[in-house]
Design brief:
The complex is a heterodimer of chains A (233) and B (296). With 233 residues, chain A is α/β, with parallel strands linked by helices. Chain A folds into two domains: 156 residues, Rossmann fold (3-Layer(aba) Sandwich); 67 residues, no CATH class. A six-stranded mixed β-sheet of chain A has the order 6-7-8-3-9-10, sandwiched between helices. A four-stranded antiparallel β-sheet of chain A has the order 2-1-4-5, with helices on one face. Chain B has 296 residues and is mostly helical. Chain B has one domain. Chain B is built from eleven helices and four strands. Classes of the chains: A alpha/beta (233), B mainly alpha (296). Chains A and B meet through helix 2 and helix 3 of A and helix 6 and helix 7 of B. Bound molecules: adenosine-5'-triphosphate and magnesium ion.
């Protein structure tokens, strides 16, 4: 469903991602791992339309979306949960979720809202609170739930476990697995390489803005290069 | 009275600042254009249609609101949108430049002289709750209150308003929700300009006159009101405007006594700018704001 070819992204002329080829099939779970500054977040920003590519192409469900602005990609089924749990701190939890459904006019919104609340009951308890008052884990849950409110077919997640306690991370990864079980394709960027690869069927390793390794998640987990560099062995 | 006018104009400053981080110094000129367009509309439509005073005023207000919305959208499109990514100072200088351009165009169109704003409302003083008020004053207060209630409803209760608040917090994040940020920015200018038109008609009606230079001082004072309330904060602009109006009229009343008769009440403008300086020195985030830093 997602086909990225030769993607190049830069900040003020300084290249951050080069010659990137990446694919995600419908319903697939794919991990992207790499060191700090490898270009993982930049890649997701390029896919979501927050940065304009210098070169290359992005196709989603056969349609070329390379030049589309971010807000037009949302209704094509792509949704990004940005790095650092971007929630609207001064909107309530419920308003954040409503923003997720901003483009929708169908009658299914209420049902999806109920589903989000049953996935994360904590959000229901706090639905009238400002999102900025939530804990880090709750904000991450909110960011994921809000992304689901647009009914994406491809969910991009940027380091959802960052700064979270291990049991919260486990909860988040369970939720991601559930979402994937519902047929949503997942592109997961993580520092937590082991958890990400264990969840995924395929993986990419980024180094210096390029794909250094790509393949089956199980093969990557077993490869000595990945074990040494990213799994601390 | 003037406080409610400051509040309406301050809303335009604060809403644009909230979304773009830009002080739209040309906003005061939009108020001026609103006043002058209304005068022209009354002059043309009055004899042509023979409408009764209050109705004519309402029609003129409508024309003025439309003209100002057009001007606001034009400013955004032509002057500010190309500078969205440019340094703040560039945009600020552009805003000041646009202010000068609009003022000069207005001077060419309407001339240098004061134009009188006809009295279209019954203006005998009446006694209300022990205070003497005129019909004009009552209408100014009532219309301001109405405009604010409508604005708060729009911002807090509608999908569009939610998108405006979301965009003010983070345009990038809002675009990830599917919000067309450009459109939200235009809407913000349209709403601010409509309020500016309303303020322009009111201030011209209040003083009975208008001229091409009136937007400058009014704009500065409204900007002061916005800073006083906490720039970027919508209720803050309302509170700041009303507070500035009170400070000014108290100040004008007592300035003679305070200075032993040395300064007269025509020095009332001093108070607005004293307030601006004091706020900037002691509480730059304003009365209701605590979040100037996180926008910068
Ligand atoms: N806003 C920015 N402006 C300029 N350079 C940037 C910006 N964001 C990232 N970079 C640079 O781009 C490169 C890739 O950064 P990116 O954020 O994509 O890395 P990452 O893989 O997500 O790292 P991390 O694990 O730290 O999140 C880095 O060299 C970084 O310094
Ligand atoms: Mg990153």
């Amino acid at each position: 469903m997602l086909e990225v070819r030769g993607l190049a992204l830069a900040y003020d002329g300084i290249a951050a991602v080069r010659e990137l080829d990446l694919d995600v099939a419908a319903g697939e779970r794919v991990a992207v791992i790499g060191a700090n500054g490898a270009g993982k977040s930049t890649t997701l920003k390029g896919l979501a339309g927050l940065m304009h590519p210098r070169a290359g192409s992005i196709r989603l469900n056969g349609e070329d979306i390379t030049r589309q602005p971010a807000h037009e990609r949302v209704c094509r089924g792509l949704s990004l949960v940005p790095e650092g749990r971007g929630v609207f701190a001064r909107l309530t939890v419920a308003e954040n979720l409503d923003m997720g459904a901003y483009l929708r006019v169908d009658p299914g919104i209420e049902g999806d809202l109920d589903r989000c609340y049953s996935m994360f009951p904590r959000l229901h308890e706090r639905r009238r609170q400002l999102a900025g008052t939530l804990s880090g884990g709750e904000q991450q849950m909110l960011a994921i739930a809000r992304a689901l409110m647009s009914r994406p077919s491809l969910l991009l997640l940027d380091e959802p476990s960052m700064g979270l306690a291990p049991q919260v991370t486990t909860r988040i990864f369970e939720a991601i697995a559930d979402i994937s079980a519902g047929g949503v394709a997942i592109l997961l960027v993580e520092q937590n390489a082991r958890a990400a690869l264990e969840l995924s069927s395929r993986g990419y390793v980024l180094e210096g803005g390029r794909v250094a390794l790509a393949g089956d998640a199980r093969d990557l987990l077993a490869s000595s290069a990945v074990r040494r560099a990213y799994l601390g062995e | 009275m003037l406080g409610s006018i400051y509040a309406l104009v301050a809303l335009g400053y604060t809403m644009v600042y909230g979304i773009l981080g830009l002080i739209n110094f040309a906003h005061g000129e939009v108020v001026m254009v609103g006043a002058l367009v209304a005068i022209t509309a009354i002059g043309v439509l009055g004899p042509a249609t023979g409408l009764p005073g209050p109705l004519l005023l309402l029609v003129a207000l409508g024309v003025s609101v439309l003209a100002c919305m057009l001007l606001g959208a034009l400013l955004e499109r032509v002057a500010y949108r190309p500078l969205r990514e440019a340094p703040r100072l560039t945009a600020l200088i552009t805003a000041i430049g646009m202010s000068i351009v609009i003022q000069n165009l207005a001077m060419l169109a309407w001339g240098r002289q004061y134009l009188s704003f006809p009295a279209l409302l019954p203006n005998e003083p009446m006694i209300l709750l022990g205070a003497t008020v005129t019909g004009t004053q009552l209408i100014i207060v009532a219309l301001t209150a109405l405009a604010m209630v409508v604005l708060m409803g729009l911002v807090n209760r509608t999908r569009l308003g939610r998108a405006m608040r979301a965009t003010a917090q983070s345009p990038a994040l809002a675009s990830l929700m599917g919000v067309n940020v450009d459109r939200i920015v235009v809407v913000t200018f349209l709403v601010g300009s409509a309020l500016a038109a309303l303020a322009g008609v009111m201030v011209a009606g209040y003083y009975g006159q208008a001229h091409y230079h009136m937007g400058f001082m009014l704009g500065l004072k409204a900007f002061t009101a916005a800073v006083l309330g906490g720039i970027g904060n919508i209720p803050g602009a309302m509170v700041g405007g009303l507070a500035l109006g009170v400070i000014e009229s108290l100040g004008a009343g007592y300035i003679g006594a305070l200075t032993g008769g040395f300064l007269g009440s025509h020095y009332q403008d001093v108070f607005a700018f004293a307030v601006l300086v004091l706020v900037l020195v002691f509480r730059p985030s304003g009365l209701l704001g605590e979040r100037v830093a996180d926008r910068a």
